[in-house]
Automatic annotation (TrEMBL):
The keyword Lipoprotein does not apply. Keywords: Amino-acid transport, ATP-binding, Nucleotide-binding, Transport. Gene3D superfamilies: P-loop containing nucleotide triphosphate hydrolases (3.40.50.300). GO terms for molecular function: ATP binding. It comes from Nocardioides mangrovi. Residues 6-233 form the ABC transporter domain. PANTHER family: HIGH-AFFINITY BRANCHED-CHAIN AMINO ACID TRANSPORT ATP-BINDING PROTEIN LIVF. Pfam families: ABC_tran. SMART domains: AAA. The keyword ATP-binding applies. Belongs to the ABC transporter superfamily. InterPro entries: AAA+_ATPase, ABC_transporter-like_ATP-bd, ABC_transporter-like_CS, BCAA_Transport_ATP-bd_LivF, P-loop_NTPase. This is ABC transporter ATP-binding protein.
Amino acid sequence: MTAPVLAFDGVRAYYDDALILDGLSFEVAEGESFALLGPNGVGKTTSLNAMFGIAHLRGGSITVDGAPLRGRRPHEAARRGAALVPQGRWILPTLTVEENLVVGTAPRRRGPWDLASVYRTFPDLKERRDSLGTQLSGGQQQMLAIGRALMSNPRVLLLDEPSEGLAPVVIDLLGDCLADLKAAGTSMLLIEQRLDLVTRLADRYAVLLKGETVAEGRVEDTSDEALRDLVGV
Ligand SMILES: Nc1ncnc2c1ncn2[C@@H]1O[C@H](COP(=O)(O)OP(=O)(O)OP(=O)(O)O)[C@@H](O)[C@H]1O
C-alpha cells in the first residue's frame, strides 16, 4: 500500500501556550479528496498552520508523502509537496498574474504543471496575465491562488475555504474547476463551510470540534441532513 499523501497522527498544536489541536488524526490517500469540517474557530486553519510553522507542532506527527514534517519552516511542507490555497487567497498585490503564478514554483518540484498547463486550465488567467493580481475579480483571484499552488506540482492541494466571499454562480464555476482537478487525480484537503461543495467534491470527511475529530465518514454514506447535523449548521 502506498503512503497517504497527508497524514495527521495525534497532532497537538499551539499558538504560544494556547492548545488548539489536541490529538488531531486523519489521512488523505493519493487521489482522494478529504474534507475537514466543523464550526468556526475549532482549529481547521490551525491544522494547516501547524504544517507551515505558523502554529507550533508540539506533539504527534504530520507526514507529507510519507516524510515527517518538523513543522518549523514554511518551505519544508511545500518542498515535500503540500501546496496551500490560503483562506483570503493572499494574492501578492504588487505582482502581475503571471508573477503571482511564478511565485508558486519556489518549491522547485518537477511535474506536469507550468505556466502553459495552468493557462490551459484557466484561460482567464492567460488573458489577464499582465494585470496586477488584485485587479482580477474574486473568482479569478481564487483561480489564481489555485493556479499558483499547482505551479509547485504538489502531491496534495490544501484548500482553505475556497468559496468564501464568492457569488453562488462563481462558486459553481469553482466547483467545476475543482471537480476537473479531482477527476485528473489531484489529492485534496478541503476546508469548506458550503456543504454542497463538500458533497460534490469530497470522498471522505472528518468533523473537528475542540481540536480533535468527533466524526468521520464517507460522503456517499452520509445524508446531507446528517452532515448538516454533524457540522452544526
Ligand atoms: N495566529 C493566531 N494566534 C493566536 N490564536 C489564533 C491564531 N489563529 C487562530 N487562533 C485561534 O485559534 C483557534 C482556532 O482558529 P482556526 O482559525 O484554526 O479555526 P477554524 O476552525 O479554521 O475557524 P474559521 O472557520 O473561523 O477559520 C481560535 O480560537 C482562534 O481565535
